[in-house]
Amino acid sequence: MDPQPTYPFAEVEARWRRSPSARPDRDLPADASKAAVKHYIYPWPAPFSVGGRADLSIERRWVLADTLARLQGHRAQAPVVPIVVDGFAPAPPGGRPADRARECLETLEIRRTGEVVDTTAPAFYRFTQWIFLELHLKGLAARILKRVDACTRCGRKYRFGSLASCRACQGEISERRESEWWIDISGYGERLVQDLEGGQWPREEMLGQKDVLGRVRGSEVSFQVSRLFEDEYAELVVFTTHVERIFGVTFILVDPYHPIVEAVLDPAYEDDVARYRERLRKGAEPRISAARTGGFALNPANLRRIPILVSPLASVPPSDGAVMAVPAHDPELWELAKRLKLPIREVIHNDKAKFDSQSRLEEPWLGDGVLTNSGSFTSLPVRVGRDRVIGLLNRKGCCQRATRFRRSRLLAAAQGVWGPPVPVVHCKRCGIVPVPEHELPVELPPELAAGPVEGGLAASKRFVRASCPACGEAAARDADGILPWLGTAWAYLRALLPGLDGPVEGFQGQAPGEVRPEATSSDATREAPAPATPAVPAREAPPEERAPEAAQAPDSSVPSSPAPHLDVLPEDIDIFAVPSAAPAAAGDPAQESAQESAEEPAEEPAEGPGGEEERPAEPDAAAGGSGEEGEGPVAPPEAAPGGEAAAVARGAIEPDLASTTVEEALPQQSPRGTPAKEPGPAKGLEGGGEEADDEDDGEEEAADRLSSLRPFSGPFVPALLPVDTAIGAGSLRPGDILAVRFLARFLQETGHSPVAEPFRRYLRAGAVQVGPPPAVPPPKSPAKGAAGPAEKARPGDGGRGPPGGAPAAGEEPRSLSELAGRFGADAVRLCLLFGGPPPRPIAVDVHRARCMQRFLDRIWRQMLLRRERGRYVSRRMLVEKHQMIHRVTERLQAGKPHTAVAALMRFVRFLEDRETAPEDMDRFAMRTFIILLSPFAPFLARELWAAMGETDDLATAPWPVASDELVHPPEREFPIFVDGRLRDRMQQPASLEPEKLESRALQRDRIRELVGSRRVERVVVVPQRLVSIVLATEPPRQG
RNA sequence: GCCAGAGUGGCGGAACUGGCAGACGCACGGGUUUCAAAAACCCGCGGGCCGCAAGGCCCAUGGGGGUUCAAGUCCCCCCUCUGGCACCA
């Protein structure tokens, strides 16, 4: 035989790439109503880093999407497959990701719909910002100032109060404030959980999301609280899952920074609490500890006065900063009570518990039991008691059922994050003022357009300087960056709105009444909003030039000038100054040494100055700007002294768990805590922590402020949503998906999107590692393979033996284009599909690519051979063919492309079988095979198609349908079991009646022999399947 | 610690609602071809036992119990690993 012909992929690909009809991408049709677009496949946006990557995870998603889309294409549909590149994600910058993505798509012959969407394009993030504003106006997004501890040496950040010195470099820890924007989703939790059931979520994803949301059902109990010698009462709401234990509550713990502390703290205890806080911060206090506040609460059940203490134990979820302590039934509280000599009162009795001679509990009882010491509820079982207690307290008006969610907020923007700027302005007079819609986008300054820069937005003075859209006074732009998820979370809508790049009514920047004074004029990119290639004028503001503190900061343990974060403000706008009368942090210089991190800790986003005092301060205040650095007209004022200390002194104490300050309070941070009322999402946040029981009003009011624009209202949006198949990245955490689902709900509620659930089906595609498996895991092989093959494994031959150590040099340096160049695009596609089940991570390497290439060669040969000789089609061939159709179709739709490929391979194997004549495959069979092949290996398929002389368009050739009759042939083999063991088989008509199957089975020689003289006790016949014979147990002679 | 998921040949992995375990691929062994090698092609390939052979039997889906005519699949206990949560989103 001649040397076996091989598939000349290079030549074929070149030919088809050159062909004008081969342009792989397409646009949404102009007229939606005529279009056959019915199917929407959405590969999750991803960062697309530039340069050699050892990771083809995105390509895997794209190929999977493309393969599924091609299948639909054969079903007379033009599926929509947008490609979105998330440039803001923390990927190494240094190029135009969108361009590289385009190249890659072309290489792999992936069809996309429309242009590659880049989240970093101002035309895109204009709407990210717009959505952000909608969230803000609806009262869901609010700004919070948060304390963090940061290492003064390496900049690493830690939770406030958690450490005494840097875990990584032992450097000194100092407090710093950071601003963050959070979205309150507590009102959406219930629906987010419920609607999981309806969707086609893989079990794992569903559980993950539920887990992240962390729904806890319980009750809220309000306690009257007061200072020691005062009669004035305030209210404290405590969440608990065990109301029935209310009679056992002997004290109350609150977070050391809980706002209620302010209300109840007795002057006599002020020092104690302050010291306690400080000791906690330094790690000098154990977790199980507490300090008295001198405040008391009234137990509504038995009207006893119980002390209020501050303790970190109060912040353990699901509690949100206050717990009613029942020490008798909680180990930690038990220990605390013992230490502080607080009373312990048994309320759940069980004889199994340990009691001392006076029948007092000897250790906390955690199990079940009946209520005791509980007034009229005594001796009720816990379950019953709970309902009764709720009933009682409810009548007293101090208890209601409540649901909490562990994740009730989403981080939407933060200081130092590289992302679209938060489109608001901070004005001394008006507070937080949204940038008007028509001024969107608020573009990134040029030095930040291409990638993150140390110090972030706040470092750009020109950016920060602005004027208040409301009053026209000088103001400062918010310097926080919006997190990547918010951009990608609406990208599936963007892809259906091709016009969104251009002018959109209501959004064009240069509207008549535009108020944008000096701040704008210097900003080059401002003028050209649209698709914007922000001509980056080579970093006009090198980071070094700004902020002298940065230079002095790195290792100085000396507190630098307090709060350098104000250096970004123009000197004449002293917006966030704190009353200079404030006790200037006198007490505590250490707290003030906020400073920038010179080097970024690897895992934290770039972090900058900026961030201001909470609460737009009273206008009369002025903190001196010492004007350290007079670059241009902008002189950074000196920071307002005593940010934190002053705040504390004024009593503006962080309401959230220990470490955050709300600027516009999120509901659950109001002193009362949050009643996360089920049905009503989107309570107004405005007005600080005022109780929003009149939700309707709040909502209406908010609605008034929402945008009247409907930019997302193209014809394709209702036609194609929800997305039919979303292909998520393996790296997506459940919380990320949750965020997208939340946003979808929000957009639906506000009338911007027709669907609340964005995805009909969700597939996850795991990571792809390029190259050979990481290393030889040494512990693995020695035990078993010691003698045989392990010894013989030849390490030398071209990366073969998987455990054989490093593959031959020269083989391995790889990239997508190199692989595609050596083995062809189809082979790479197959690698990505065949590598394993989508959710799992796979590897792609030269060896695997070659295997796929070999498979393509085998196809090539068979098809050439049969094109010459094929004449007829046998029944055997038909059955094989239809089984292949059935398997490929079903497996591909099921999201298991690797088994679909296996079905193709199986068929090819059948063709190669000796028993299969070269003549046995007619033209139709070949057509069918090629069509089935084409979603997986489009180049080869197209070449074969042309070689067959077919002239119709392969891409839209109708997908074959498997005939049931042939998939399940009329004659089949029935296994026969005797006593549960496979003993014989017989060929019989598939639909033979059970009775006949039974009798024919019993008549078989082999079965008669096995049965012998024993009695047939039972025969189980499964029609279409098998016969199972049960014999009576042997007569008991050898028993 | 809490919650969830997964453990199948030497490897990646198949197996629809309980119904012939190991599809497909790799690796490995033998053979054909070749001066030789690569490539290609053919045969074999979970383990053990009986048999010259055809063939047959037994054991095998982390371990141990159970339900069933029948268990990788369902139930209980245990072991191991992974993921999520708990200190961050």
Shape: globular
Distance N terminus to C terminus? Answer: 66 Å
**What share of the residues lie within helices?**
25-40%
Spans where pLDDT lies below 50 across 5 or more residues:
510-702, 773-810, 1035-1039
Q: What kind of oligomer do you see?
A: single chain
Under CATH at level 1, the class of the domain at 215-405 stands as: Alpha Beta
Q: How much of the residues is beta strand, in percent?
A: 15-25%
Tell me the CATH superfamily of the domain at 215-405.
Valyl/Leucyl/Isoleucyl-tRNA synthetase, editing domain
Count of DSSP E strands?
Answer: 30
Biggest sheet layout: 7 strands, mixed
Q: What is CATH's topology name of the domain at 215-405?
A: Isoleucyl-tRNA Synthetase, domain 2
Mean pLDDT: 71
Structural class: alpha+beta
The DSSP helix count reads 33
Give a nutshell description of this structure.
With 1039 residues, the protein is α+β, with helices and mostly antiparallel strands.
Please give a structural write-up.
- The protein has 1039 residues and is an alpha+beta fold.
- Among the domains are: 9-119 and 715-770, Rossmann fold; 215-405, Isoleucyl-tRNA Synthetase, domain 2, CATH 3.90.740.10; 814-966, Isoleucyl-tRNA Synthetase, Domain 1; 970-1031, Ubiquitin-like (UB roll).
- It is 30% helix and 15% strand.
- The chain is built from 33 helices and 30 strands.
- Strands 7, 8, 9, 10, 11, 12 and 15 form a 7-stranded mixed beta sheet that branches. Strands 4, 5, 6, 16, 21 and 22 form a 6-stranded antiparallel beta sheet that branches. Strands 18-17-20-19 form a 4-stranded antiparallel beta sheet.
- β19 and β20 (474-477) form a beta hairpin.
- α1 (9-18) packs across α30, α6 (203-213) crosses α21 (734-749) and α26 (846-869) packs across α28 (897-912).
- The model is unreliable at 510-702, 773-810 and 1035-1039 (pLDDT under 50).
- The protein binds one RNA strand of 89 nucleotides through α6, α21, α23, α26 and α28.
